[in-house]
Amino acid sequence: MRLQRKDLRRRLMVQFHGEGGLDYGGLAREWFYLLGIEVFDPRLGMFSYCNEQDYLLQINPSSSADQDHTLFFHFTGRLIGLAILHRHFLDVTFVSSFYKQILGQSITLADLQDSDPDVHRSLIWILENDVSEVPDLTFSTDEDELGDIRTHELVPGGANKAVTEENKFEFAKLMVEWKLIKSSSRQMCALLTGLNEVIPIENFRTFTVKELRFLISGSHEYDLEDWKRNTEYKGYESNDQIIEWLWEIVEAWDHDNQARFLQFCTGSSRVPIEGFQALQGSDGPRRFCIQKLEDLTRLPSAHTCFNRLDLPEFPVRRMLEERLALALKNAQGFTGD
Question: Disulfide: which of 29, 130, 192, 204 matches 267 by Cβ 3.0-4.6 Å?
Answer without folding.
Answer: 29
